[in-house]
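A note from the maintainers: we've had questions about how concatenated examples are separated. There is no special marker in the raw files; a new sequence line simply starts the next protein. For clarity in this README we add a label.
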Amino acid sequence: MQSVDTLFILLGAIMVLAMHAGFAFLEVGTVRQKNQVNALVKIIADLSVSAVAYFFVGYGVAYGVSFLVGADKLVVNSGFELTKFFFLFTFAAAIPAIISGGIAERAKFGPQLLATVFLVGLIYPFFEGLVWNNNFGFQDALKAQFGSPFHDFAGSAVVHAVGGWIALTAVLLLGARSGRYRKEGAVAAHPPSSIPFLALGSWILIVGWFGFNVMSAQKVGDISGLVALNSLMAMVGGTLAALAIGRNDPGFIYNGPLAGLVAVCAGSDVMHPVGSLAVGFMAGLLFVKMFAYTQTKLRIDDVLGVWPLHGLCGAFGAVACGIFGSAALGGLGGVSLVSQLIGTGLAIAIALVGGFVVYGLIKAFMGLRLDQEDEYNGADLSIHQVSATPERETSW
């Protein structure tokens, strides 16, 4: 049975790993053409740095496990702990992938990789350990006081809210792209460079999300068809909401399902499918409305809208779990709204403090932003010395 569980979680890890292609192409399709190469390189580079940081430090912070022992000890029980690490690493690597979309088109490459070391090695696993490993007795205290621990089955708060609120700190410290906002109040339009790539990225994320959610059970015996159906209904709800109020904008329509899936992660194992549909629909509305509001009214230049999508929808979903997961609304129960509010608030607080400390120190000592000329030329040529679509190719 241990071998079956190992295979099960390995397949989940592979599906979530594939989601990083989704992050990459969602960003490639959204940014301007002169920044497409940089988007592709950032995702795989951040993934690799995340693996090292999480292997040597982060996993130990969260779960108290070290892999610095002989291989004979590592392969005990079919190497289940190693496969579990692989699965949870793909979640951890989502943090810089989320941030990447917010800081696109004007962030330096090296400093962002350094930020990833600290975020994946320390900040993210600290909160991960509180929720998913009961570090410092956090969950026990909530259960004793309010009847139920903080429930976050697949990471609405642990992954998405933390990533989205950290991204907000980076975006604020970086400032808006040059020319984005003008003194007279006008907002310069930067339309997506490739709707097909944006749509491809969204579809890859959608498919991988069923590994993200369903296989968060981590054992074959705990697998639940309810999680799969709830994920589907939330995805559909988010899409329909974006379709209803997004004025047929494909950028909204392809981010709507992602908003629903972000929100349902926390309670996908306890909510009724009708509740999941409602949560997904509300998340889709929240994303569309808040993306427009943050870009035009708050003048926060969050390129892919990762704070509304992951930060706000993640926080909303974690709180909604305490409502729609209750038996009174057709859920399985075992949730406490107060515990959900406390856990969500703590996720936001840790993300904000950690984000401002990490990015603030890097900004002070290394700088976060490309200079004006490099930004004008685009990150592709400035950092990687190649464009996504060279006008001329060398012929031999």
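[label: protein 2]
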Amino acid sequence: MTQTRDTIMGALSAIALPDGGDLASRDLIRALTIESGVVSFVIEAPTPEQAAAMEPQRRAAEAAVAALDGVQKVSAILTAHGPAAKAPEPPQLKVGGHPTPQAGPEDIPGVARILAVASGKGGVGKSTLSSNLAVALARQGRKVGLLDADILGPSQPRMMGATKGPASADGKTMLPVEAHGVKMISIGLMMDPDQAVVWRGPMLMGALQQFMFKVDWAPLDVLIVDLPPGTGDVQLTLSQKTKVTGALIVSTPQDVALLDARKAIDMFQKVRVPVLGLVENMSMYVCPKCGNEDHIFGHGGVRDEAEKLGLPFLGEIPLALDVRVAGDSGTPIAAGEGPVADAYMKLAAELVEGGIA
């Protein structure tokens, strides 16, 4: 018996579709041909996504037509009417711009304490101390965040071994990246590392405000803010926009560094941010071959300065080749073992025990 178009469409009308109707009533059959017992047709779905889900209906259609008398072979092809829907593009994060007005300093949601790590000058190891202290505090069981506020010279992505940029669902708020148990944000995660950030003060202030209030930090026991050198826009923005728990001042022992450390202390006192103590970085160098201890930058100068100013002296961090190697490799030395890691763990433990972190 030779089948007709009507009988074949009748068979196809029995193939129900997941979203209602059937192949015939929904007018999805195209290019139906009947020749010498061979039947072929195309099932044209509205979209590629629907076509991909209709393989069971295609097989059922072939079986229904093959069961008709006189049909020797059936070929049914799935296709789609329109192009595949484009995947939604991720929202574009824009960092910078002028800061938005605030009535006064505000809490960062979900952040219990904010510690600013500062120095009056560059080159004293402030960023190295920030990353290692963050890792050491995380090893103490604290929930820690690290905000790289050195917008013009971000180094934390390299030191923390982070390369992936922050995610965003709406192009406005950001999810921090995580490395070594620490949540982190830095402009360096969003820009070509070989390109300079050439911004005036208002752009720096706007970026810092975004990093404080447009990042999903919660929950954190402590947020460490790695400040740039000096006493300028970024330091003022931090103290004016949010409630800083206190500042840790980092200095090497020599007089030149201490001159600028005093200026940093004076600035925080003027903006009413408590100075929680001083840390002497690069306090000594121990030769890895002979064990001889050298005080390349002097020794004890920061301790003496703390006593003179009536401020806590928080500890000494030695100078070691391993610190540089670890920082360059993206694994802070505090994540491992050894004398320098022990010095950072001791500092972290004292901050925890003192209720500072």
